[in-house]
Amino acid sequence: MDxxxxxxxxxxxxxxxxxxxxxxxxxxxxKSRGYLTAxxxxxxxxxxxxxxxxxxxxxxxxxxVLALIAFLTMAAIAAFLDFSKGLxxxxxxxxxxxxxxxxxxxxxxxxxxxxKEYDDLVLPANEPILAMLARLSDLQLIAYxxxxxxxxxxxxxxxxx
Length: 161
Known about the structure:
Helix content: over 70%
Number of strands: 0
Largest sheet: none
Radius of gyration: 25 Å
């Protein structure tokens, strides 16, 4: 078992798949921060214009309160994403150490074992986490669109008066 054709390629593909999962995880976090930043700017501008207009009706104030609730929803999701546990990136080190402890394996045999660990343990463990983050990201996008929409409508009402 010294020469296993494709062992290195198999391991490389498994590592690339894990790397893509990590990139997706970081992408969700970056997108979340972007929504939060843009939402903060939107609600700040709209509320500033409403404060300048002493005649802002209760409808405008109500829209801004709803926009603030949407913004707080975005902030809660962003905080959850920032503080959520990261993904598993590599097979268990203690298991790997125990496997090779005192034994001699070929590089190819170890590459196949590691690739199998990625395919059997690492990648499947990350899938439910990524699916949940995708749903949260979608929810955050909806909250962002609601918040910006309400802020813009409130702003248009205040400016047109």
